[in-house]
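ZP: hey, is the 2-acetamido-2-deoxy-beta-D-glucopyranose complex queued? I don't see it on the tracker
AM: it wasn't, my bad. submitting now with these inputs:
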Amino acid sequence: MKHFRKLKILLSLFVLTVHADLPCAPRQYEESVVCVCNTTYCDTVTREVPDGGNYIMYTSSKSGKRFSKSYGSTQAQSYINDNEHFDMVLDIQPETMYQTIEGFGGAVTDSAGFNWKSLPPAVQQHLINSYCSEDGLEYSMIRVPNGSTDFSTRPYAYNEYPVNDTKLTNFTLAPEDILYKVPMIQACMKVAKLDVEVVTATWAPPRWMSIKEESSGFKYLNEDYYQAYADYQCKFAELYNEQGIRVWGLSAANEPLLPFLYDVKEETQLWSTKKMSKFLKNNLGPTIRNCSVRDIRILAVDDQRFALPPLFESIAEDEEVLKYIDGIAVHYYFDERTPPAILARISKKYPDRFILSTEACAGFKPTDIPKVDLGSWERAKIYIKDILENLNYNLVAWIDWNMCLNKEGGPTWVKNFVDSPVIVDAPNEEFLKQPTFYAMGHFSKFIPRFSRRVRVSKVFPTEDLDVQDIQALEQSHYDTVAFLTPNDSIVVVIHNEAKETKSAKIRVGQQELFVKLDAESISTIEVAYLD
Ligand SMILES: *[C@@H]1O[C@H](CO)[C@@H](O)[C@H](O)[C@H]1NC(C)=O
Ligand SMILES: *[C@@H]1O[C@H](CO)[C@@H](O)[C@H](O)[C@H]1NC(C)=O
Ligand SMILES: *[C@@H]1O[C@H](CO)[C@@H](O)[C@H](O)[C@H]1NC(C)=O
Ligand SMILES: *[C@@H]1O[C@H](CO)[C@@H](O)[C@H](O)[C@H]1NC(C)=O
Ligand SMILES: *[C@@H]1O[C@H](CO)[C@@H](O)[C@H](O)[C@H]1NC(C)=O
Ligand SMILES: *[C@@H]1O[C@H](CO)[C@@H](O)[C@H](O)[C@H]1NC(C)=O
């Protein structure tokens, strides 16, 4: 009996592999592959709907799998304790629900727009489909900077002239908006199934609104222009709205503590807790609530985790400020230095305020050489681990930085070259999808808006474990998250960091299924939920 069951488990591990989609056109680099898209070819992936009793599994791995599909069937949960045959046993408990997902996406910076536009039209369309369509990652959120950032070819703001023009009589969008960013966002919206939610932030306002402190070189917003700056935010939303792009959320400033910590003086403004409170309460809050573009969510922080105490927790003590804060935006840089416990503390104390991740990229540290590391699975792992951690700490969205860059990691007028999930090679009329692209997709494509995170518990294989075994298991090379989608399916994402294949048993309701997790891989498994 026991042997028979073992055999059944073994058989169910050898599931049929079918490729209905266009597979990756691989180009091998040292660690892993990139997938090449050109005028005539680009890989696709469609999400299939699992019917009762079956599951679909998608795997990407260091060895070169990219959304490789496999199918299998579930079986009624057995009461025989065979847990010891598996490296991992997961018990999904959909009756315990956590946060509701808003979405996943990337940023349309000026540089992303330039790179996209530098490709022939057919390749541009492949790039948009890869990110936004049902054949691709199904991005449902986009972050767009208001004015220029380090990922621009020049610094600029709107209404730079005339100076001291508090009525903003000369506010028009820049050529960067009209020629690159607006068309790129519109192209994404056109092929996306869900509404694309747009989040914005300002890096630097018009120069006349700032005061430069001679001694330190820091720039502050001149308090005389707080209202003009608030109006500027609303105006930007109105002009984008005229282009059919609705601003869903905005933050008061991008990385307001950056100048203080990293001595960066360009493209950024330093904000103290006190000034931020004052600006939110007296200017930005009332202005955005009254902006003709309705229902814009105001996001606090928009900086690293370590900025959460000064730029949210302190500010939130004043009810008059808190009432204008709908959510909290965090960036992921240096997450390893600030443990996620702070996210748990905030979501516990402020359950009505959502937290989302609004910026991330690989290759940003000075020691990250090369800046664009083609085929790096290590960088995919960084994305996967950060997204898993954030989702397990109740974040509702995870938005990547530049949607595409060139082979150098730019353009960037301040020479802040970094990596991107899509690298554009305009002279060769192609773009390369990095492992980070697929890392994003294992979440973005399968966890649609309004999915609810559900409890996953790891079951210890046998009851007679000693303390050492338990510790080893707790530190095992896995990480996982599960969701109940609006269509009543269960989506489980599992990261196997180990250098060996692992087996897993997953229990969902009255069913169970057995899967093999490739060495150094990420898998998304979708199964109909029959409770
Ligand atoms: C485009 O990519 C496909 C698949 O890799 C390849 O067969 C084809 O030759 C490429 N076309 C061009 C113009 O490079
Ligand atoms: C309005 O802004 C444009 C640049 O966007 C500038 O060339 C022009 O001089 C400005 N108009 C006035 C009256 O300052
Ligand atoms: C603009 O306002 C600043 C004070 O904020 C003042 O020093 C400057 O002279 C003004 N410039 C013009 C052209 O009005
Ligand atoms: C864009 O930035 C300007 C100032 O730089 C600000 O007044 C305006 O409100 C911003 N718009 C949005 C939607 O953030
Ligand atoms: C709200 O906007 C309207 C129209 O733009 C304006 O007349 C009114 O003064 C504004 N109210 C507040 C409180 O800002
Ligand atoms: C979810 O259900 C809706 C409505 O029944 C359907 O249109 C949609 O295609 C389904 N999506 C998936 C991913 O199953």
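AM: back. Residues 1-19 have pLDDT under 50 and may be disordered.
ZP: great, adding it to the tracker
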